Amino acid sequence: MTGPAGRTDQGQPEPPDVERQFAGIGAVVTGAGHGIGAALARALAAAGARVVVNDLDAGAARAVAAEIGGHAAAGDAASEDGVAALVDAARARLGAIDLYCANAGVATTGGPDATPEAWELAWQVNVLGHVRATRLLLPDWLERGTGRFLATVSAAGLLTMLGSAPYSVTKHGALAYAEWLAATYRHRGLRVHALCPQGVRTRMLDGTGPHGQVLLAPTAIDPADAAAAALRGMAADEFLILPHPETAGQYAARATTPDRWLHGMNRLQQQIETLPTAQETR
């Protein structure tokens, strides 16, 4: 039960009304053929949104769209031409785009030894895909005085991801861009959110090797849980959305005691280096 000022009888803030926030809106979700993106599309549709499902995998996009009664728009959500085509197709279907979920991402591994192509791919998808989308969406949002942008950043953008420098660096870039958007346009009606989960049981987690198995797998959540956290966070107008609550403390430790935090991360790296390789376990 609720009491005055939107608070429960126990004095806690009233949970946000997710369905009231999203019913009838036009939403685009990129990378929505699988994983978190598919879960976001399902959750938004269940809340009453009209959803355009985007993915490079055309078959997966069509399957999710058919499941939720949405519209499929297969294609590249990172390149200039691909983003323009997606925005045009979504506007043709929805009339206006009220929410853009920049969920598509790539997890390239390695450090300085990663190929130039791997670094470029991570930069194009994880950062410039967001820039290109907002370049096209902002004029309409600012004219209408309303719009919402969700970036699936990952906790790697707040912390780091051992074993994957391109991913870590570009996810920090995605967070920085989301922060800049929020600081620059909030007073003009733009709401920006950064979804920062740790491990989520997806194909991407499966490909992270021993680093992911040590750092992420033990506390991994289902994609539906990440999507539910995203909708609750957006409805509550939160910038940082943390499906793993412990991320907040880790982020604070990184900021306030960086040497201690880095020492701890390095100990994890040393632990991972002692693990037997796949070849040694045969």
Your description of this structure?
The protein is an alpha/beta fold and 282 residues long. It has a single domain, classed as NAD(P)-binding Rossmann-like Domain (Rossmann fold, 3-Layer(aba) Sandwich). It has 11 helices and 7 strands. The chain has a 7-stranded parallel sheet, sandwiched between helices. Helix 2 (35-46) runs parallel beside helix 3, helix 2 crosses helix 9 and helix 10 (246-256) packs across helix 11 (258-273).
Number of helices: 11
CATH hierarchy class name = Alpha Beta
Distance between the termini: 58 Å
What's the name of the CATH homologous superfamily?
Answer: NAD(P)-binding Rossmann-like Domain
Number of domains: 1
Question: Kindly state the mean pLDDT as a whole number?
Answer: 90
Beta-strand proportion: 5-15%
- What CATH calls the topology is Rossmann fold
In helices, the fraction of residues equals: 40-55%
Sequence stretches where pLDDT stays below 50 over 5 or more residues: 1-5, 278-282
Structural category is alpha/beta
Written as H for each helix and E for each strand, in order along the chain, the element string is HEHEHEHEHEHEHHHEHH
In spatial order, strands of the major sheet run 3-2-1-4-5-6-7
Radius of gyration: 19 Å
Shape: globular
